[in-house]
Design a protein that fits this description.
It is a single chain. By secondary structure, the chain is of the alpha/beta class. The mean pLDDT is 95. It is globular. Helices cover 44% and strands 17% of the residues. It has a six-stranded parallel beta sheet with strand order 3-2-1-4-5-6, with helices on both faces. Strands 7-10-11 form a three-stranded antiparallel beta sheet. It contains nine helices and 16 strands. Bound molecules: nicotinamide-adenine-dinucleotide.
């Protein structure tokens, strides 16, 4: 059975890449984990540290290397890039990371046969789209981590508020991972009951609609708060990546709000954006046409339009 486990390459051994490698090692999902970073010393140091804990975790081959080690990789997770500098515009950050991706993607594909590419670097939706265009891979094999993290944050905060196991909450954040994302309250349930009804019957909330909106605003602000406090977010994104990876590796068919190419979704096409999608050994093989309310449709369209506006400014 060991040989059926995949080889996973992680590009970028910074906060997110190294924490994902650690979480992956603990999960026991991978046969081989290779860390690739232009800062070779950093990647080496992270691998030494990880390997020293191996006898306490699962047998896994973990090493630092160059892009040639993408050969035979089943999944390549891309966390490499530059972080937004103070006063840097979103468009300038995008252009900088697109140029990083123009180097990285051909370097991966020079060696890897037909991998699944999982994009994490921000702005994740734009870079997922660029990865798709640069790689020429079929759209099911190019996935962005999208709003999986945002959705996990939402479930956690609702669970705290409503005092209920987050596993019993079905609620998704869709759209862009960032400013224009939106919660789909019209489809959200707790224990099979519409969320607003649950809140008004079983919690002390006086105005469930407003209080849920406030929870969503806190979710949106949480990355900013964490970055102010500790400089980066790493644990929850790493676990989100393990969840996506597990669904691919074990062919679990989990429905996750990953960023994927959509075609004629409420009339919107040719953009990578998050909607609940079925993730399995083929990557994303299906995305769900949700029954969005009129207001949600408007917000989703606005989110897609704001991504398209940025895409238009980029030379592929
Ligand atoms: P980091 O600066 O700690 O790590 C980035 C690493 O990429 C660095 O080690 C750098 O040397 C490496 N790198 C840069 N260019 C490279 C290249 N051409 N080839 C190989 N390596 C290269 O940053 P981080 O905190 O790990 O964040 C990584 C990315 O993940 C950022 O874009 C961040 O915004 C994003 N992120 C996304 C989510 C999400 O939900 N999608 C969540 C958290 C972070």
């Amino acid at each position: 059975m060991e040989s059926l486990k995949p080889k996973i390459a992680i590009i970028g051994a910074g906060n997110v890449g190294s924490t994902f490698a650690f979480s992956l090692m603990i999960s026991g999902l991978a046969r081989e984990i290779v860390l690739i970073d232009r800062n070779e010393l950093l990647a080496k140091g992270e691998c030494m540290d990880l390997n020293h804990g191996l006898s306490l975790a699962h047998p896994t081959k973990i090493y630092a290397s160059g892009f040639e080690s993408c050969e035979d990789a089943d999944i390549v997770v891309i966390t490499a890039g530059v972080n937004r500098k103070p006063n840097q515009s979103r468009i300038d950050l995008t252009k900088e990371n697109v140029s990083v991706f123009k180097d990285i993607i051909p370097s991966i594909l020079k060696y890897a046969g037909n991998p699944i590419l999982l994009v994490v670097t921000n702005p994740v939706d734009i870079l997922t789209y660029m990865t798709l265009k640069i790689s020429g891979l079929s759209s099911n094999r190019v996935i962005g981590s999208g709003t999986v993290l945002d959705t996990a944050r939402l479930k956690y905060m609702i669970s705290e508020y409503c005092k209920v196991d987050p596993g019993n909450i079905h609620a998704y954040i869709i759209g862009e991972h960032g400013e224009t994302e939106l919660p789909v309250w019209s489809n959200a349930t707790i224990g099979g009951m519409a969320i607003e009804k649950y809140c008004s019957v079983y919690t002390q909330l006086k105005d469930a609609k407003n209080e849920l909106s406030e929870i969503f605003e806190k979710v949106k602000d949480s990355a900013h708060q964490i970055i102010e406090a500790k400089g980066a977010t790493n644990y929850s994104i790493a676990l989100a990546l393990v969840k996506i990876t597990r669904s691919i590796v074990r062919n679990e068919n989990s429905i996750l709000p990953v960023s994927t190419l959509i075609t004629d979704y409420y009339g919107i096409s040719d953009v990578c954006i998050s909607i609940p999608s079925r993730v399995n050994m083929n990557g994303v093989d299906q995305y769900l046409k949700l029954d969005l309310s009129d207001q949600e449709q408007e917000l989703f369209k606005h989110s897609a339009d704001s991504l398209k506006k940025i895409i238009k400014t980029i030379d592929i």
